[in-house]
Automatic annotation (TrEMBL):
This is IclR family transcriptional regulator. It holds the Pfam family IclR_C. PROSITE patterns: HTH_ICLR, ICLR_ED. Keywords: DNA-binding, Transcription, Transcription regulation. GO terms for biological process: negative regulation of DNA-templated transcription. The lineage of its organism: Bacteria, Pseudomonadati, Pseudomonadota, Betaproteobacteria, Burkholderiales. Residues 29-91 form the HTH iclR-type domain. InterPro entries: GAF-like_dom_sf, HTH_MetabolicPath_Reg, Tscrpt_reg_IclR_C, Tscrpt_reg_IclR_N, WH-like_DNA-bd_sf, WH_DNA-bd_sf. Residues 1-26 are annotated as: Disordered. GO terms for molecular function: DNA binding; DNA-binding transcription factor activity. Residues 92-270 form the IclR-ED domain. The keyword DNA-binding applies.
Length: 274
């Protein structure tokens, strides 16, 4: 046995490689990472693909992609349609996705996102979910400005007159919206052409905007967050003095809200953030 220290590899005290290897970060298996591009390509496409198209979408040659697909098929991550020959996600991939959705807490994810969002938009931000009687604010994060809007957890949001509420009016199940509007004394709101047109615009833009409706000098805008089933999971909103909140759809603040909503939607399983 060669006992010359100069010829021995440098070992860390935990039995691993020395500092040089440790500085490179955790070591992965490159072939798994390469094959994973095929799974990502299928997720992005949203439908089964022929080998040639799937390989192209993953950035590799068909001959290289095929062995990965065979192995993925054996464990249920991929399955091939016996008629068309197209490749789609298999039963194991679907089971993993469903379990992942069950384990994700939308409110927890939103709460973690709000501090950075408040700094980005420069005002108070909030997250709301659909409660027993309508939209309920479940978390508030104050921004860096000295002026704060008086809000607290558990505050209901008007479907007709708040940015948060209008997101739910636009995207929540119509029967639930109709019932909640009736509780607010807005029984005929969905028969008002102006309100209906506003909700249609919110669905197109994925953005609601309110200026001086409930409180003079206070404006708000809100965006929807969707889950992996395409359902509205929650709404996040920015609220502040009208002079500090740019309500135009292309504003920096609107972009920050949309980006946060897309990131949360993707974490909840929505393809492309919907």
């Amino acid at each position: 046995m060669d006992m010359n220290p100069a010829r021995q590899p440098s070992l860390a005290t935990d039995g691993g490689l020395g500092d040089e290897a440790e500085s490179r970060g955790p070591r992965g298996i490159q072939s798994v990472e390469v094959g994973g591009q095929l799974l990502k390509a299928l997720v992005r496409s949203g439908s089964a693909l022929p080998l040639k198209d799937l390989a192209r979408a993953a950035g590799m040659a068909a001959a290289k992609a095929h062995p990965y697909l065979v192995s993925f098929g054996k464990i249920g991550l991929i399955e091939q349609d016996p008629v068309s020959g197209h490749y789609g996600l298999g039963p194991l991939a679907l089971q993993l996705g469903l379990i992942g959705l069950q384990q994700v807490d939308p409110v927890r994810l939103a709460v973690a996102e709000l501090p950075a969002l408040a700094q980005a938009v420069g005002c108070t931000v909030s997250a709301a979910v659909w409660g027993p009687v309508g939209p309920i604010i479940v978390h508030v994060e104050h921004g860096p400005t000295a002026v704060h809007v008086a809000m607290r957890h558990g505050t209901p949001a008007s479907l007709r007159h708040t940015g948060t509420g209008k997101i739910f009016a636009a995207f929540a199940p119509p029967a639930a919206v109709t019932e909640a509007l009736a509780r607010e004394g807005e029984t005929h709101a969905l028969q008002d052409p102006a309100f209906v047109a506003e909700l249609d615009a919110i669905r197109r833009e994925r953005l609601s905007r309110v200026r001086d409706e409930l409180l003079p000098g206070i404006s708000a805008m809100a965006v929807p967050v969707f889950d992996g089933f395409g359902r509205l999971a929650l709404a996040i909103a920015a609220i502040g003095p009208s002079a500090l909140l740019d309500l135009s759809p292309g504003s920096t603040q609107a972009h920050a809200l949309r980006t946060a909503a897309e990131r949360l939607s993707q974490r909840l399983g929505a393809i492309g953030g919907l």
